[in-house]
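Structure tokens please, single chain.
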Amino acid sequence: MISLDIFCDVIDNYGDAGVCLHLARTMSHKDFKVRLFCNNMSVLERICNEHDYQNENLSFENWEQPLEHYEVAMCVINAFGCHFDKQTHETLLNNPQALIIHLEYLSAEDWVEDCHSLPSFVDGLTTHYFFPGFTSKTGGLNIDKDLTNKCIPHLAKLYTKLTCPQGCDEAKTKSLSSNELCSKLNANAESTRVISLFGYENKAVGNIVKSLSDCGKNTIIKVFEGLCLDNINALYQWDLKVGKIKEVGNNLSIEAIAMVGHDEYDNILVSSDFNLVRGEDSIVRAMHTGNPFLWHIYPQDEEAHIIKLKSFLERMRTILKVEIPTLESEPNNLELLHHGLKFIAIDAHTADAMVDEISQVMIAYNEAEPWPESFDFNGFVERNAAAFYNLAVYLNGRTNLSQSLCEFIMSKIGSKLA
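Here you go.
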């Protein structure tokens, strides 16, 4: 087995630890002996599950203090440019045979394709930059088999709901537009809609609440404790505690819930009708479910995060308008890539309209543009549900980050194992 160390510096609360734990867990199932070094063990412990502690190929190492002794692994991943402590850095300098990978943040920007997997000399160490992304020229997305196994049957059911609401004749739906199909779905939906809310400080959440509070459809928002619940309490001058519920208007309830482990959060993302998510780890998983979402991207200086957000939205446009039609023209390949799932037909004009509206709302949700005065939550979902579904079907058929990493690592150190 190949020894692999992942170093994680927790900055974005649960986000950085979440990305690293998901990756460590997945790599441990691919004949890697993985150690995850983390400088905030309490955060890591909140999101681990019992299987992680029973996994013989995965261990957690406390990195809250500089390491007194470090035995170098064959491959070392430096997550998000965290700085090695002095002793560890010196040990790596003395072991140049180790493959060092700098795992970057997720980005849909065009320039990452040119930089992906290239080596660079950093602090005396030869480091390869690895970029998660949405194209075959990047490292893919940080997804595991467990989530895929939950998403595939959910997407199959979602397809039926979108194209044959309440058992309507499938043949009759072929002449309907995606908007008409989504409207039928909304009209026949279950009585209570569930929305998950996980985010940072964000005044725009109030606009979502306002639209939902008297929209004619019973809705419950499940708000996670921490920054997200603090934001709700600050917006409404509440003191809402975990386990308690507030009624807002005629149709809306807001429930405060405790932070949960990865498995339960995946279940919530899949089972919710709409997901409000934050950071990198949550959005990657939410977009695979096929459920509509809004992404609260991690704020950066000089609005660099808005550039990343707009790049993602334009990438979504390309997927819907160009890449999906290309896949549909290769039915044999489509069957293989998408586990037998089908796309919903969306013409180029409709795809543009969908992405334009999603972009307007998502950028406003990140407080970079004014909130659209005409925003109607029900209408937003009706018009765009097919776009979120098609995106998910596409993404579930792509090569993921762990697969890309395995191929890259073996290309660099495989000869040493022979």
